[in-house]
Specification:
The complex is a heterodimer.
Chain A (H helix, E strand, L loop, with lengths): L10 E4 L3 H12 L4 E4 L15 E2 L10 H17 L4 E11 L3 H18 L12 E4 H7 L7 E12 L1 H14 L3 E3 L2 E9 L2 E9 L5 E5 L2 E4 L5 H7 L9 E8 L7 E5 L5 E7 L2 E5 L3 E2 L11 H12 L10 E9 L16 E5 H4 L5 E6 L5 H16 L21 H8 L3 H11 L3 H10 L15 H10 L8 H5 L11 H13 L3 H19 L7 H15 L11
Parallel strand pairs in A: 1-2, 1-11, 2-7, 4-13, 11-19
Antiparallel strand pairs in A: 3-6, 4-6, 5-6, 8-9, 9-10, 12-15, 12-16, 12-17, 13-14, 14-15, 18-19
Chain B lengths: L1 E7 L3 H12 L4 E4 L29 H11 L11 H13 L10 H4 L4 E4 L5 E4 L16 E7 L7 H11 L8 E7 L10 H8 L2 H15 L6 E4 L9 H10 L3 E3 L7 H16 L3 E3 L3 E5 L6 E5 L6 E8 L10 E3 L2 E3 L8 E2 L2 E2 L18 H4 E2 L20 E3 L15 H19 L3
Parallel strand pairs in B: 1-2, 1-12, 2-9, 5-6, 5-7, 7-8, 12-18
Antiparallel strand pairs in B: 3-4, 10-11, 11-12, 13-14, 15-16, 15-17
Helix pairs in contact in B: 1-9, 1-11, 3-11
Classes of the chains: A alpha+beta, B alpha/beta.
C-alpha cells in the first residue's frame, strides 16, 4: 500500500471515533479532499465505550429548551440517516415505597417533566411517556424490587456506535476521502507558524512518512490535548471516566433507570442479546491509553442496579468497558454538571498556530451537528462554499430497510441471522449475502453463541478498513456475545490469514493481541459464573497455544 | 441415606475415587450436581507434561512425572512418593468400562505423548485419546480427506487442511490433508457440535450423511476421512459404521473443550458407576457438616433428606462445576470452606484481582489455586495438618498445577482420585 499512499491532501482529520468519522464524511460530502488518520482502529476509544444512546436532550429541558429542541431534531436526523443501526429502548423509571414522600414527589415531577419532553419526541420519532401504576410496572418488569409504588415509562434511541462510525467512514471513503487506521500522528510539519502537514507512522509496518495538507482537524477526543501539544497548541479538557458492565443476556423487557448511592442515575439497558449497565462519571487525570476498571466502580454500578433489580448480584458479567468523555474544562463543578457542549477551536486565534482546528467536548447524540460546525469552520478557512448535506443524506446502508424474511428465503438462511446482518449492514446486507451465492460455505457462522456469517467477516475485510483481525470485533460483533470467544477468534484470524496471506508468526501475534485486548476488559470483573466461562475459554486457548503449528504456535 | 464413603462430583476424579473405594469393599454413594469439567472437556487423556515443546525433555511417562515433581513442589504428583502405580491402577480400573471409547493400554500410556489432530487444524498432545481421534504418524493413511459439512459452522476444512499440511511439511511420510466438501445439511443450520452429534444419533440422519459422503468421495483418491467431532453423542459407533460402509478409516478431530468426547466420556463414567453398585444421587450438595465427630452430613440444595457418611471425598472441580467460587471477590471452597492455597502458600485473605496478571497467557493464579492434600489425599489446613478428619479431595479442586493448560489434567484426576478413594475406604467405618 506504500506506493499508493498519497503525499498531499487538503484536510487531515485526526481521530477515527465518531467525531473524526463524522467530520471526514462532512468534508468529503462537500467535495474536500480528506485523509483521516487514527492510531488504532476506527471506533475503539470513547465511541466504543459509549452507552450507545441518542438522547433527545431531556437534561436541558429546564435550563435550555432550545438545546432540547436541537438535540431532538438532530437525533431525528441520525435516526433517518441510519435506521438500520437504531433500536428503540423503552426506559422505565420506577419509584419505591422506601423513597417516601420524596419518591412520590419525584414521580410526579418526572411525570410533568416527561409530559413537557413529549412535545419534542415527535422530532426524533419517539413515543410519548406513560405514567404506570405499581401493578402496571410490575406486569412489564416482574422482577423489580419489592415496594414499587409507580413508574414512568419513556423511550430513547439506542444505536450501534461502532457501526455508526464505520458508516460515516465508509461514506467519507465513497466520496473520495482516505481512511487510514493504525496510523499514528507523530508530529506536525510547519512553515513558520503555519501547519502545512503531518508526520505519520504506520503502526503495523512501522513505516514513517509525511502528508502535506492545508488544514488539520483534531478530533482525537480525550487524546485531543496530546495532539494539540504536538503543535504547541493547547486544548483544555476535563476528561471524565465512564465505566460500563455487560451482562450475558437481556435481563428485562425495558431499560431501567436506577438511583446510585450519590443520587446519580444509572441505566441498565438491553443491547443486542446482552444487557449493559452504566455508567460512572469521575474525573480522570491519568493517561488515556491506560484506562482500567476498578473494584469500587463495579460495586458502585451493581449497588445502583440492585436497588431496582436485586437479581443483578447473581447475573454473569461478561466484561467491563471503560472510556473517557472528552468534556470541556470547567472549574468548580461536579462531573455530571459539566457541560456536554462542544467547541470548535481555531488555534490560529487562540495559540497563533494557523492550520489547526480542534473539535472538543460534545456528546454522541450531537456528533452530526458537531461535525457540521467543525466543517463549516474548515470551509470558511478554505474558502469552500458547499453547504452541509449530512442532515438528510442517508448513511451507507441506511437508504432503505430490506425485508429480512424475503432475504432469508432467497439465500436459504434463518431470518434471525439475516435480521442481525441487516442491523449492521442495512440495505447493503444483500452485498454480503451475494458472497454466499458464489461460495455456500460462507453462509455458515464463525461464532458459536451468536450468528456471525463468515460472509460478513469476509465482506468487512474487503470493504470496511479492516487492517488486522481484531478489527472484526467492531465490524461484525465477533467475540462480543455471551461466551466472549470459545474459538471464533481463532477462526477469524484463520480467515484473515487466508484472505491476506498472513504468515504463521504474524497470525500468532494477532491472536495474542486480540486475546489480550479481550482479557484486559474481562479481568476486572471475574467472579461468580463468569469464572466457569473463563475456565472454558482458557481451555480452548491454553491447550492450543503451544500446539498450533500455524495459529499461535511455537516459533 | 447413608454411605461409608460419600464422593461429591461425578467427573473423572470423583468417578475414579468412587471406583477405588468400591474396590476396597465399602459402600459408596456418589452425589453430583450436573455435568462439569469432564463433560465439558475434550476427552483427551493428557497424563503428564503432554506439551509438545517439552517432549524432548521428558519423553516417557515416568520421566515426565519425575520432571513435574522436581519442578513443582505443590503439584498433586509431588505429594505421593510414587504416583505411577496409582495412575496405573486407575487406568486398569477404567480399561474395561471405557473400552468402547478408549484403549487405555498401560504400555501405550507410558510412551511419549502422541500428536492428535485438533478441530482447529492444530496438533494436540496426549498420552491417550478417544479411539476415533487421529494420531498423526508417518505410517498411516497418506491422503486424508477433511470433511466439510455444509451445515456445520465451526469446522473450517480448507483452513484445517492447510494448517496441517504446513505443520507437517518437513515430516517425510506424513499424510496429506485435502478438504472434502460434503453437501449434507440437516434442516436446522447453525448447529452446535453437540446438537449435530445428537441429530446424527438418529439412523435416518446418519444414513443421509453416509450417502452424501459416498457421493463426495467418488473419483477421489482419499484413503481416510477426518470429521469434526460430531459423529454421535452416545458412542463413537457411527465412526465405525461409516468406516465399515465406506471401507476406509474414519476419524474425528480432537477438541480442547466442550466436545462430544467429553459428553461420551461422562456418560460412560456414569454407566460404569451404576454397573459397579455405586449409589448415584443426582442432586446438588449445598453444605457439608463434619463437626459431629467422624460423621458427615451433606445437605441438598433442593431440601432432600440429608446424607450421612463417615468419609467424604470432595471432587467438585474448579470453577466449571462450582468447586471453587468467588464471593465478594474472595476465593472460597463453598461446601466445607476448605483452606485454599496458591502453590504452597495459603491464600485465604487474598483478593482475586490482586492475583491475576495483565498478560492473558501469563501463569494466572486462578489456574493454580486450590486445595492441598497429604499423601493420602486428606484436605490440609494452612499449617499442613488435616483440616477435618475424614475429608479427602482429588481432581481439579487441587491446586498447584495449571488446570487450564491441558497437559496433565487427566493424570491428576486419575492419580489423585484413586489415592483419595482408596484412603477414604480404608479409613471408613462401616
Amino acid at each position: 500500500m506504500n506506493a499508493k499512499r498519497k503525499t498531499e491532501t487538503t484536510v487531515v482529520v485526526v481521530g477515527g471515533g465518531i467525531n473524526g468519522a463524522g467530520v471526514a464524511r462532512d468534508l468529503a460530502l462537500r467535495g474536500i479532499d480528506t485523509v483521516l488518520v487514527e492510531k488504532g482502529d476506527i471506533a475503539r476509544g470513547t465511541s466504543w465505550a459509549s452507552s450507545g444512546m441518542i438522547h433527545g436532550g431531556l437534561r436541558y429541558l429546564l435550563s435550555d429548551v432550545h438545546t432540547t429542541y436541537k438535540s431532538s431534531k438532530d437525533a431525528g436526523y441520525i435516526k433517518n440517516a441510519a435506521p438500520h443501526l437504531i433500536f428503540r429502548i423503552p426506559l422505565m423509571m420506577p419509584t419505591f415505597a422506601h423513597e417516601g414522600l420524596r419518591g412520590r414527589v419525584m414521580l410526579s415531577g418526572a411525570d410533568a417533566l416527561f409530559a413537557h419532553y413529549d412535545r419534542f419526541q415527535p422530532l426524533k420519532g419517539g413515543w410519548p411517556h406513560k405514567r404506570l401504576s405499581a401493578q402496571e410496572a410490575r406486569a412489564i418488569e416482574p422482577r423489580l424490587a419489592e415496594g414499587v409504588v409507580g413508574a414512568v415509562l419513556t423511550d430513547e434511541w439506542g444505536i450501534d456506535v461502532p457501526r455508526l462510525c464505520i458508516a460515516n467512514a465508509l461514506d467519507a471513503h465513497e466520496h473520495g476521502a482516505e481512511i487510514r487506521s493504525w496510523t499514528a500522528l507523530t508530529g506536525f510539519i510547519r512553515e513558520g507558524a503555519r501547519i502545512v502537514g503531518v508526520s505519520l507512522r504506520d503502526e503495523l509496518d512501522g513505516e514513517r512518512y509525511e502528508l502535506r495538507c492545508k488544514l488539520v482537524v483534531n478530533c482525537a477526543g480525550p487524546w485531543a490535548p496530546k495532539v494539540a501539544a504536538l503543535a504547541k497548541a493547547e486544548v483544555k479538557l476535563r476528561p471524565a471516566k465512564g465505566v460500563h458492565l455487560v451482562l450475558d443476556r437481556r435481563v428485562g423487557n425495558t431499560g431501567l433507570i436506577c438511583n446510585a448511592i450519590d443520587g446519580r442515575q444509572v441505566f441498565i439497558i438491553p443491547h443486542e442479546n446482552t444487557s449493559v449497565i452504566g455508567t460512572t462519571d469521575d474525573d480522570y487525570y491519568g493517561d488515556p491509553d491506560r484506562l482500567d476498571v476498578g473494584e469500587d466502580e463495579i460495586e458502585y454500578l451493581l449497588w445502583a442496579v440492585e436497588s431496582v433489580w436485586p437479581e443483578v448480584r447473581r447475573a454473569r458479567i461478561v466484561k467491563s468497558i471503560a472510556g473517557l468523555r472528552p468534556t470541556l474544562f470547567e472549574r468548580a463543578k461536579y462531573e455530571d454538571d459539566l457541560t456536554r457542549d462542544h467547541r470548535v477551536i481555531d488555534h490560529a486565534k487562540e495559540d497563533r498556530v494557523p492550520g489547526l482546528l480542534t473539535l472538543a467536548g460534545g456528546k454522541l447524540a450531537a456528533y452530526r451537528i458537531m461535525a457540521q460546525d467543525a466543517t463549516d469552520t474548515a470551509c470558511a478557512l478554505l474558502n469552500v462554499t458547499a453547504p452541509c448535506r449530512t442532515q438528510l443524506t442517508p448513511l451507507p446502508g441506511g437508504a432503505a430497510m430490506p425485508d429480512a424474511f424475503a432475504l432469508a428465503q432467497e439465500f436459504d438462511l434463518d431470518a434471525y441471522v439475516v435480521k442481525r446482518l441487516i442491523d449492521r449492514q442495512g440495505d447493503r446486507a444483500d452485498r454480503v449475502l451475494e458472497l454466499i451465492r458464489d461460495d455456500p460455505s460462507l453462509g455458515r457462522s464463525l461464532c458459536e453463541c451468536e450468528p456471525v456469517l463468515v460472509a460478513e467477516a469476509v465482506y468487512a475485510m474487503r470493504h470496511e478498513f479492516v487492517r488486522r483481525p481484531s478489527d472484526l470485533l467492531t465490524r461484525c460483533r465477533l467475540a462480543e456475545g455471551p461466551c466472549q470467544d470459545m474459538g471464533c477468534i481463532l477462526r477469524a484470524v484463520e480467515l484473515f490469514a487466508c484472505e491476506r496471506g498472513l504468515s504463521s508468526n504474524d497470525a500468532a501475534r494477532e491472536i495474542d493481541v486480540w486475546l489480550n485486548d479481550k482479557w484486559r476488559w474481562r479481568r476486572p470483573i471475574l467472579s461468580g459464573a463468569q469464572l466457569a466461562n473463563e475456565e472454558l475459554l482458557r481451555l480452548t486457548h491454553q491447550a492450543l497455544k503451544p500446539a498450533l503449528p500455524r495459529l499461535g504456535g511455537v516459533s | 441415606m447413608r454411605g461409608d464413603v460419600l464422593v461429591i462430583g461425578a467427573g473423572l476424579s470423583g468417578a475414579t475415587a468412587a471406583m477405588a473405594a468400591r474396590r476396597a469393599g465399602v459402600r459408596v454413594v456418589l452425589a453430583y450436581r450436573g455435568f462439569g469439567r469432564t463433560a465439558l472437556s475434550g476427552g483427551l487423556f493428557a497424563l503428564a507434561n503432554a506439551a509438545p515443546s517439552k517432549i524432548a525433555a521428558a519423553s516417557d511417562l515416568a520421566r515426565a512425572i519425575a520432571e513435574t515433581r522436581r519442578l513443582h513442589a505443590a503439584h498433586p504428583f509431588a505429594v505421593d512418593p510414587d504416583p505411577l502405580p496409582l495412575l496405573r491402577a486407575a487406568l486398569d480400573a477404567w480399561r474395561r468400562p471405557l473400552s468402547a471409547l478408549y484403549d487405555l493400554d498401560w504400555a501405550v500410556a507410558q510412551e511419549a505423548p502422541k500428536a492428535y489432530v485438533h478441530e482447529f487444524g492444530a496438533l494436540c498432545y496426549a498420552q491417550l485419546a478417544p479411539r476415533s481421534c487421529l494420531a498423526v504418524t508417518t505410517q498411516g493413511p497418506r491422503r486424508i480427506g477433511v470433511v466439510e459439512l455444509a451445515s456445520f459452522a465451526p469446522f473450517m476444512a480448507a483452513a484445517i487442511a492447510r494448517n496441517l499440511n504446513e505443520a507437517l511439511a518437513e515430516n517425510a511420510g506424513a499424510p496429506d490433508f485435502v478438504p472434502l466438501p460434503v453437501p449434507f445439511a440437516p434442516r436446522a443450520r447453525y448447529l452446535l457440535p453437540a446438537q449435530l452429534a445428537a441429530a446424527l444419533d438418529r439412523p435416518e440422519v446418519a444414513a443421509a450423511l453416509l450417502a452424501a459422503v459416498k457421493s463426495a468421495l467418488r473419483g477421489t483418491a482419499i484413503e481416510a476421512l477426518l470429521f469434526a467431532p460430531v459423529l454421535g453423542l452416545g458412542t463413537p459407533d457411527l465412526a465405525r459404521r461409516l468406516a465399515d460402509a465406506l471401507e476406509l478409516p474414519v476419524f474425528e478431530a480432537c477438541a480442547a473443550q466442550n466436545s462430544v468426547f467429553g459428553l461420551r466420556l461422562q456418560n460412560a463414567l456414569i454407566a460404569a458407576l451404576h454397573a459397579n453398585d455405586i449409589e448415584l444421587v443426582h442432586e446438588s450438595v449445598s453444605a457439608l457438616d463434619g463437626s459431629s465427630g467422624g460423621v458427615f452430613q451433606a445437605a441438598f440444595a433442593n431440601g432432600s433428606a440429608p446424607l450421612t457418611a463417615s468419609r467424604v471425598v470432595l471432587a467438585t472441580g474448579k470453577f466449571l462445576a462450582g468447586g471453587l467460587t468467588v464471593e465478594g471477590r474472595m476465593w472460597r471452597e463453598p461446601l466445607a470452606d476448605c483452606p485454599l492455597f496458591l502453590g504452597a502458600e495459603p491464600i485465604r485473605e487474598r483478593h482475586i484481582s490482586h492475583l491475576s496478571q495483565a498478560d492473558f497467557f501469563a501463569a494466572q493464579a486462578m489456574a493454580y489455586v486450590g486445595l492441598q492434600t497429604d499423601a493420602a489425599g486428606r484436605v490440609l489446613d494452612e499449617r499442613g495438618r488435616p483440616y477435618c478428619p475424614g475429608l479427602f479431595t482429588c481432581g481439579h479442586l487441587l491446586g498447584g498445577f495449571d488446570a487450564f493448560a491441558g497437559t496433565d489434567g487427566a493424570g491428576v484426576d486419575l492419580t489423585s482420585g484413586w489415592r483419595a478413594g482408596q484412603a477414604a475406604a480404608s479409613e471408613a467405618q462401616p
